[in-house]
Structure formats: structure tokens, C-alpha cells
Write a structure and sequence with these properties.
By secondary structure, the protein is α+β, with helices and mostly antiparallel strands. It has one domain: Pnp Oxidase, Chain A. The protein contains four helices and eight strands. A hairpin with a 2-residue loop joins strand 6 and strand 7. The longest helix is centred in the N-terminal third of the chain and has 9 residues.
């Protein structure tokens, strides 16, 4: 049996196993995401933290307590948000690079408090952080 000729006769179109996502596709996935990972830098080392996120008006928001995550982004505002999902025969992975800012203005804090942002862990997270995206990259994968 000639495998090559068998595949050539197949009428089903072949999908590439890896495709690049456009920025609008990345943002559409971000809008459906509530759990992600935050990448910051701590003393020259990359620090990855899981967190809950919400998108609003082209920005990403999360709540946090005082600690290394907050300290890292205050010292270096450049951050990365990463999220991914594998389901059935496909998966995707998205990285959103941007600038983080601790919200301090009372009107901004009031607006952020209205966002549907509920922490998974019942610890006090009194600080709101806003990330303004600068670049988005993503890939979709056909598994198997």
C-alpha cells in the first residue's frame, strides 16, 4: 500500500497543526478567560503567579494583596499575562504583554470594584491592578 498516494487522494482539507492567532482573536479569548498567569520580574528572575482576571474597555484587571506580586510590578511595570486551554482535539495559548498600574484614584477604584472579579481564595485582596496591553501573541494547536 502506498501511503503517500492514499493521503494525496484524500479530499478532506488538512489543517496546519499550529496557527498564529491575530490580536483580535487573542483579545476575544482574553474576554472569555477568568484564570490566567501573571509574569513579573523579581531580582532578575521571572516570577509566575496564578490569578483571576477580568477584561474591561480594552484593559485587564485583577485584585491582589500586598506581597511579592505587587512589589514586583511596582518595581517593574512591564508584565505578561498568559492563559491557555486544551479541550478535545485542540488547544490555544495566549501571551499579552503590557504595562501594569496600581489603581489609586478613587473614581478608578470605584469602577474597578464594580467589575465581576471574585478571588478564588478567600483572602483579603484590597489592591486593584490595571494592565494596558501593548502586544498580544497566540497560537492555536491541533492535538494528536
Amino acid at each position: 500500500m502506498n501511503i503517500q498516494s492514499t493521503h494525496q487522494n484524500s479530499s478532506a482539507p488538512q489543517q496546519a497543526p499550529v496557527t498564529e492567532l491575530t490580536e483580535p482573536e487573542c483579545w476575544e479569548l482574553a474576554e472569555k478567560t477568568s484564570f490566567a498567569r501573571l509574569g513579573t520580574v523579581d531580582n532578575g528572575e521571572v516570577f509566575i503567579t496564578p490569578l483571576n482576571i477580568v477584561t474591561s474597555e480594552g484593559k485587564i484587571f485583577f485584585r491582589t494583596a500586598h506581597g511579592s506580586k505587587l512589589t514586583n510590578l511596582i518595581l517593574n511595570e512591564k508584565v505578561t499575562i498568559e492563559f491557555d486551554k486544551a479541550e478535545g482535539g485542540s488547544a490555544y495559548s495566549v501571551n499579552i504583554f503590557g504595562t501594569a498600574r496600581l489603581l489609586t484614584d478613587s473614581s478608578e477604584l470605584e469602577r474597578a470594584a464594580q467589575l465581576p472579579l471574585t478571588p478564588w481564595i478567600r483572602t483579603e485582596k484590597i489592591e486593584f491592578v490595571e494592565i494596558t496591553p501593548s502586544t498580544m501573541t497566540g497560537r492555536r494547536f491541533i492535538l494528536g
